[in-house]
Amino acid sequence: MWLADSTEVRYGVKGEYKLRFSGVLDLHGRYLLAYNLSPTETSEAIIQTFEQAFQSAGNVHPMVHTDRGAAFTSKVFNHFMDQHQVTRSMSRPGTPYDNAPMERWWNEFKLNWLDSQPTPKTRQELVELIETGIHYFNYIDRTIQRNGSTAKEYRDEAA
């Protein structure tokens, strides 16, 4: 099962610039398959993120869970999902905790990674910080919930 969502990230001398950080998370092992940075959350940005995820994962037809944001309910996004033979799941209206595993990943990424680093001054510094953080959470961070494995190791055990 894959989860998808986006969150706001900031950069600049005083954090005055913001971007949307979109991600596709493989729930098994909490492995971030793909990400994208865009000025706003659009269906095009989300589709680009999923294109990366499908390229990374190969010929798969996962169940995908999202919230009911405009990007995820758009016709163009739904058509894209149909083309990839994806089974869709969406949060119920007014119940953001339906997407709690993805929200938890964002929270851990922001609190345990982004907030522990100096605020990036440029977009390129933000990209490098995010990519280093994704590498950390996918390949280095070991948790009890994954029996002491990294997200990548845990995911590979299922394959």
From TrEMBL:
Pfam families the UniProt entry points to: rve
SUPFAM superfamilies documented for this protein: Ribonuclease H-like
UniProt GO BP: DNA integration
Integrase catalytic domain: residues covered: 1-159
Top-level taxon of origin: Bacteria
InterPro entries hit by this protein: Integrase_cat-core, RNaseH-like_sf, RNaseH_sf, Transposase_IS3/IS150/IS904
Any one Gene Ontology molecular-function term assigned to this protein's record: nucleic acid binding
Protein name: Integrase
